[in-house]
Amino acid sequence: MPMDNDVSDDLVDAGRGYENLFVPALFEAWTKHLVDGARIRDGSHVLDVACGTGVLARSALARAGASGRVVGADPAPGMLAVAKEIEPAINWLLCSAESLDVDDAAFDCIVSQFGMMFFEDRRQSADEMYRALKPGGSIAIAVWRSVEHNPAYADVISVLEDQVGTAAADALRLPFGLGDAGEVTAVLESSGFAEVSVDAMTETATFPSSRQMVEAELRGWLPLFDIFLSEDKIDEVLAESDKTLGKYSNSSGEAVFPTSAHIFTGCKM
Predict the structure, then answer these.
(1) What is the pTM of this model?
(2) End-to-end CA distance of the chain
(3) Among 57, 91, 262, 266, which one is least packed by beta carbons within 10 Å?
């Protein structure tokens, strides 16, 4: 369905915080791999599934051009409100990956960046993407590799385990829980995608500081799992993370570290 303009200020503020911190620090670097992997070209009709605040959709629009068409779909109204603020030329849809509000065989290319780990029903989501793709169309999906391949986040998880507990550590492990490439390949193939291939790739994350990176997780991510820390506890965790993550700081105080993901590509015959 089209995005509802009546979105709470709290949700919009959260979306803006995500766009301002995590998009440039972590996610923007990956968009080129999806745009290339899905073979987006001038005039392409593109669907971005689990689009968030739209960084990948905007990259797709830059490649597809004025003769193309880009649609972004996400179940989070705050994210979509911010996406629309930034780029009103894209059609933003409020819907889940399991129930895409689009026509059959409507798109030349479908992309999804770091969303599949959170889909409630991955097979149904893959079925929906297959339904929405034209015959001959291409898909590209990014999924984080396991936390062992993302050492900075392994370090943050270790701090949370020691300072907060297993539930907090598990909450941050969640995005890295689909690191088995064979599992994702099987889902895509079972939905009908052909010529499925996977590449392990590495990009560089650059946060303003390690403290800002960790504090965003404490104040923004953990509360989604009903984990709320006192200000004193947040200060304790940040002090410990400063020591553990100091090795990633450059001369300007930025936290710079490698991140690793699998890029899956395939097509609809």
Answers:
(1) 0.96
(2) 28
(3) 91
